[in-house]
Design brief:
nine-stranded antiparallel β-sheet; Beta-galactosidase, Chain A, domain 5; 22 strands; 351 residues; globular
Length: 351
């Protein structure tokens, strides 16, 4: 794929992305794998390769680190304050160990709902191309093949935003039913000051996350009920049973309690000619650092939201929440020869 997706997935061209008819070319992935070879072939100002990772840095100093084989974004550090050192790490990431890869961060998860053999091992990605617009817009395109599914994953960095976009094509003779999501683990200064604004009037149900090597909370841990005590019991309501739909009335989704939710139109409603869709965006609020980040979905019809509640400290000292656009409850159907694209954009207006 030529590096033409920069304009498609720029926050300035969201409408163009949704209406674009560009197709996914055949993925002849580059065999260039070593850091030196990647740097020689693709390196340019603001794009640096080392140790199977690529780091993007735009002119204002905002940076992003992408692990190439797993397409895992382990760091996003934008400039959010006017001062010279006004950069903040947005992502909650657990470093790799001998038994586990790096977890958290931003991860693209895809499973064939009719085939359980690929649900634990992530696809292996290679660098296909890079693109840039001066040094205010940088982009890396990865590609891989998983059975009859060809995929391109495009990660872009701008001064006040980052985009993760995926294009998937079914090259087989049978239809595919895919469960997929782009999940971001946001880091918060404190448990009390974490929340999401934008889901008022939206339907949701309790739902476990997709199983993934990048998960911090496993599906079993996310499904465990919690009854907070003391101060944190104020305003707490237990999560509903799976399959029970609720319409959120509160303007703010408080993340200090344990939850695992899917915001979506119920499947029965999606069969109708007209139904209420979920919002196209929401804002993640970190009161402790006085920051907020806008999350925008494209292509996906669901949003997943989970928070660890009181069990967060078993993973580290800081609080986190996992959220992002998804196709979990209703698998994404992909007919033979059909192509689909979706994206997540994270923006901020903190400067």
């Amino acid at each position: 794929m030529a590096a033409v997706l920069l304009s498609f997935f720029s926050p300035r061209n969201v409408a163009a992305t949704a209406s674009s008819s560009s197709s996914l070319p055949s993925t002849t992935a580059t065999t260039t794998t070593s850091s030196d070879a990647l740097l020689q072939k693709f390196g340019r100002k603001g794009i640096n390769f080392s140790d199977s990772t690529v780091e993007l840095t735009v002119r204002n100093g905002s940076s992003l680190k992408l692990h190439i084989p797993t397409a895992h974004v382990s760091s996003y550090k934008p400039k959010v304050y006017w001062k010279d050192d006004g950069f903040e790490e947005v992502l909650y990431t657990i470093p790799p160990s001998e038994s586990q890869p790096s977890r958290g961060g931003i991860a693209f998860v895809v499973n064939d709902s009719d085939d359980s053999s690929n649900r634990r091992s992530p696809p292996q990605w290679t660098v296909k191309d890079v693109d840039s617009d001066s040094i205010d817009a940088l982009q890396v395109e990865l590609s891989c093949t998983m059975g009859n599914l060809e995929m391109a994953y495009v990660v872009s960095l701008y001064p006040v935003s980052t985009t993760a976009a995926v294009i998937m094509k079914n090259t087989g003779e049978k239809a595919l039913n895919l469960n997929c999501a782009i999940l971001t683990h946001f880091r918060f200064k404190g448990r009390k000051g974490s929340g999401i604004e934008g889901f008022r009037g939206t339907s949701y149900c309790t739902h476990i996350p997709l199983s993934s090597p990048f998960q911090i909370l496993s599906p079993a841990e996310a499904a465990m009920a919690e009854a907070p005590s003391g101060f944190f019991n104020l305003g707490w309501e237990p999560e509903k049973k799976p399959g029970v739909w609720t319409v959120q009335q509160a303007p703010i989704t408080v993340l200090r309690h344990k939850m695992s939710r899917l915001y979506a139109a119920p499947p029965a409603e999606r069969s109708r000619p007209f139904y209420n869709t979920i919002p196209s965006k929401y804002e993640v609020i970190d009161q402790g650092r006085e920051l907020f980040f806008r999350v925008i979905r494209m292509g996906f019809e669901e949003f997943y939201v989970s928070s660890p509640g009181s069990c967060f400290d078993k993973y580290g000292k800081e609080y986190f929440a996992c959220t992002g656009p998804a196709s979990m409850l209703v698998p994404l159907p992909l007919k033979p020869g059909e192509e689909w694209r979706g994206a997540q954009i994270i923006q901020h207006d903190n400067l």
